[in-house]
Amino acid sequence: MLTSLYVRQFAVVEKAEIAFGPGLTVVSGETGAGKSLLVDALMLLAGARADSAMVRAGSDRAELAAEFDLAALPQARAWLQREELDEDGACQLRRVLRAEGSSRAWINGRPANARQLGEIAELLVEIHGQHEHQALLSRSHQMALLDAYAGHDPLVAQVRELATQWRELGARVRRLSGGEDRDHRIELLRHEIAELEKWALPAAALAELEASHKRLANAGRLAEGASGVVDLLDGDGEFALRRALGRAQAELGKLATLDERLAPLLELLDNAEIQLGEAVDGLGRYAQDVDLDPDRYAEVDTHIARLHELSRKHRLPVAELHARLGEMQAELTELEGAGDALDKLDAQRRQVQREYRECADRLSRSRADAAMRLGQEVGALMGELGMAGGVLQVGLEAVADTDPDPLGQERCELLVSANPGQPPRPLRKVASGGELARISLAIEVATLGNDAVGSMVFDEVDSGIGGAVAEVVGQKLRALGMQRQVLCVTHLPQVAAQGHAHLRVSKRSDGDSTYTHIETLDAAGRRDELARMLGGVEITRETRAHARQMLERGQTAEK
């Protein structure tokens, strides 16, 4: 459940901190006051694309933050634990938008990306925008809506998984029983495996080969260089290091007889002379032992060249060729033993297909039952929403292909008749904009509450209706508010009167700047706001009385 929303320097809002409780909270205000900014803020906290224009003019950044109580949301708590973002059973989303266009986000005080914001927001809040009814024209959306209404998620996932398994098994069968293609593949694998067995090396052997190649390629330089260093250290020249060190030892030895404090330093020179001698001996042996074998170098060079050719051929780094050898050997073993493997795969595929049919049949029966119930419920709501005699049918059309389909054995099409006597036709072909909005609202009301999110937000989904129809919508939203938290931006007093709490958004100006003010109304404030919504500019005593009656009726009757 959303417990608080903090907004600072966001559009025309300088600063606002709003506390939310359970039930239906309605938001009202004059046109242009910024009612939908609360919804915009929640959408940005849910990972929506940021726009620098949302930063208040004259400010360098906008700050948004929302806190949620996760006591009744185990899936959200589990997600936070998986992402290592959990914090004492609560969740705080925070986002900063900068005027130059960048934005940053945090979850429980830790940096987060847009993906993480979107994933956790899906578990916390469901937002219904003003133009969402356009999505209803998509047949895939219609099927998803029917499955959500019926609670088919586990069954749909099982059908999809079984169809995927069936297809994967089919692909393996085709690969193993490919006729001439299979024979050609076996021949090719044998040839390529023979190549890799000859040339590909494990990591340690490859490293040794490359080191040997480098050493052999530079053998002459290594021998000559080592001999040259020996000459520098112990050659016949006057400035050879060993001669100079001997002279230094002799001189320091004389001085040490005059001052015993020089004895330790003389010992250091003696040690240096020993180490220098060992270095000279080692370099001499190295220069003599350097491998100058051109035949060995040619052999190693050929091996390296073949490895690079195989690397290009298989489009893999040289270091991964040995692992590829193991994969190809496993594939060859599978292809050569295709007879037994095919029998097992065929048996597995038939079993998966039987399981798919059983599962898909259950889904089909459940969809047919849900389609009838949804059609009846939406049809009744269409009448309540001012479309008397309107009919909605949820048509299910069998898929012609008999192979397992990840979406099931049928496709969905919403058929509607907005007026009595007209035959139902596809919604995407017959509904006008106004009719589509009302039908969409009826479907939303009929399917509300089918998921586990803690908060639902509606941004003027009641536009285009009024009178008794608006009161019905308010009653439905209030009833939903008895099950979960609902936030509804509305311009209709009939809806606003049904709220458990009421926020008013107003716009103020000091001549230089414009500010949006958001306040929680008490009983008297609610009555005055309903009167404004009913009466417009001039509010009479009769308007206030009507507002009081509407508020009393909305607060006493739970539908």
Automatic annotation (TrEMBL):
Residues 318-362 form a coiled coil. Keywords: ATP-binding, Coiled coil, DNA damage, DNA repair, Nucleotide-binding. The keyword Zinc does not apply. Residues 2-511 form the RecF/RecN/SMC N-terminal domain. InterPro entries: DNA_recomb/repair_RecN (IPR004604), P-loop_NTPase (IPR027417), RecF/RecN/SMC_N (IPR003395). Pfam families: SMC_N (PF02463). May be involved in recombinational repair of damaged DNA. Belongs to the RecN family. This is DNA repair protein RecN. It comes from Rhodanobacter caeni. The gene is recN.
